[in-house]
Amino acid sequence: MDRRLATVLAGALGIGAVLAVAPLVAGRDRGASTPPPSGPPTANSTPGPSGDGSTSTAPAAPTTTAPRTGSGQPVTFAFGGDVHFEGNLRWRLSDPGRALAGVAPLLASADVAMVNLETAITERGTPQTKAYNFRAPATAFTALRSAGVDVTTMANNHGIDYGPVGLADSLAARAGAGIPVLGIGADATDAYRPWRTTVRGERIAVFAATDVLDDWLIAAWTATDAQGGLASAKGTSLARLLDGIRAVRRSNDTVVVYLHWGAEGQVCPTPRQRELADAIVAAGADIVVGSHAHRVEGAGRLGTALIGYGLGNFVFYNESGESGRTGVLRVTATGRRIDAWEWVPARISGGIPRALGEPARTQDLAVFGQRRACAGLAP
After folding, report:
1. Helix H or strand E encompassing 352
2. Fewer Cβ within 10 Å of end Cβ, the chain: N or C?
């Protein structure tokens, strides 16, 4: 996206001060009319962002190559929170290509945009014994792709809400999604596999996992060598995630981890979140973000890494009070260096995020800044 187009978009949305940061307008021009990538992703090769048309091959084993030197070109990421299509959102999938057209401007300037798809992708199966069960048809992937989402995670406490049949349908739909779908797979190798892509010569690896599962579903939902399921950060499964991060660290310039973690309704990270952030950064991650609390939590720097503890809801049926507070975390990185980061505040209306004008924008940014303090992060 060139600067003139970025200025037009920013003015229309009332977020000019955010998009004025130079590194944040270096991405590609995207929108709801963006054509889908050519061909579906496979287990070993997935489409890269349309900015460079690259493809990537996922690693099967730890690398022993020497650390690479990147191109030195900045890459901009945009992270949104929880997405589903329940309640007042289901009708939008009647026209999936335009279902989330209003979301596209919030993601438009990023090279890599990512959200958490918090639903099973199935129209069959048996609802699990839990308070809420979410599902959507495969057109949900079309809606995400058309809105400018480049990669999504299904590693969360709703990814297998409709049991083994729902899991099989989700995996079948993933094959034709047109975007990489992380954190879910036919076995552990598949579920924990990162998406790897190249943007302007910078090699990027993205992981996804969940640290939130109902106790009685952990065994059934966690991917192992013998069963399909989700990538988990719980218990002994954390070692597999950390090993994967270490394995790709030396051959990639920027490593990203998207987690489902924390406690619902909390605006400050739990001790467990902070422990996980420390461990994941120590393993080699440069950007660690997540969701689950349905609240916006603090973000900031942990050493040289950038942490976003809670991105809140993004496309969601509950938009009252704190549930409707949302936004996009934009991060610009050159290799391991975090050049800039911004929170673009928004509010959910009609199920989708809408950028804020003044004075609401300034007020929301003040609240966001206060939440960084309880997160123990630096600006």
Report:
1. strand 352-355
2. C
